[in-house]
Prior knowledge:
By secondary structure, the chain is an alpha+beta fold. 19% of the residues lie in helices and 25% in strands.
Amino acid sequence: xxxxxxxDPALRSWVPSAQAPDTDFPxxxxxxxxxxxxxxxxAIVIAIGDQVCxxxxxxxxxxxDGLDAAVAxxxxxxxxxxxxxxxxxxxxxxxxxxxxxxRADTPEGARAHATSALLTAASEVTMRLPVAIGDYTDFYAxxxxxxxxxxxxxxxxxxxxNYRHVPIxxxxxxxxxxxxxxxxxxxxxxxxxxxxxxxxxAPTARLDYxxxxxxxxxxxxxxxxxxxxxxxxxxxxGLVLVNDWSxxxxxxxxxxxxxxxxxxxxxxxxxxxxxxxxxLAPYRVAARGxxxxxxxxxxxxxxxxxxxxxxxxxxxxVWLRSAAMRAAGMPAVRLSRGDFSSMYWTLAQxxxxxxxxxxxxxxxxxxxxxTVSGPTKDSRGCLLELTWxxxxxxxxxxxxxxTFLADGDEVTLCGVCEAPGRPRLGFGGCTGIVExx
Length: 437
């Protein structure tokens, strides 16, 4: 979490749009992604303002000299997996070289500014998944979310006894993870109006979004070798936004006794930009503390640095625009606004727990936080909570009401980091439009 020259708030880029006050991608961010051009070219890129920079082309032009052979070789790959597998030091070195190349006050920046075809407008490329995701695990790390959902189904005991002791998670489906902009088809499955059944097979009538943050694994661990909490962040490459779409009626029927299955694995959307842990260093805050009534984490989930700096000050929002709103030219409406730093478990604790039994995590694996919700109604991160299981409908600016998502609804997740004296950093949008089943 050390700060260096790349974090200097005074830095300016020769790319004009990097100085725009509302950009997600100033020179202090430099997130990594994978872009595809219309001619079939695919490359690892950096976002800067409203442009993308092809890093392989930049190195070929002699603008990223000084990178070691392994990093240079990884830039030729069609995914970030070989790069993140090199570990945090490699990402730090690349970030430093790219920062010097894009700065307005360096010799490298002057040469890059004079190089033609180095940048492409972000609107002219298609962003792909940044990594080939081998495995996906989703946690349940917001105590506010867990309490709200638990109170709907178990009013006398919203939180089960294990929640405050163990990070709860389940294994998701990696093959159905899609990049922002991919249409989401309404799934079909078994649903039952009566908890005792019988079910019918039908399209879900309770399609929901879930506002989450995910971390991409960089350097993995060997099978049988746990990851100590003090070392966990060395295995984390960066963060993305995650929408874990959920079919709540299917989920209510199928989840006992083994938990989520078809209600979750039909689609998960992630944002295309990997915001590195280096970029997020100035926006680290203390982890959520435990009250005197709450148990302290077990020793393997306790570490002083994680307690002091393990959380991320990321403001998260959900925006919705219906088909009727788009047709009328109406803007999206914000449904909720939350704070990622309120999570009960840190990302490092989740990863340490995940590997505590010797499970081997691999480069490119995705570990998600679970729904991010806060203590107030306007900070609830899904419609299940926001409409209280459909009992409190939301009225949209168009006059339409929603308890759950309708066909044609466009859901966008946003995340922004802000701190006094620091530039605004963003994640870019994480968007999906619901299609009929």
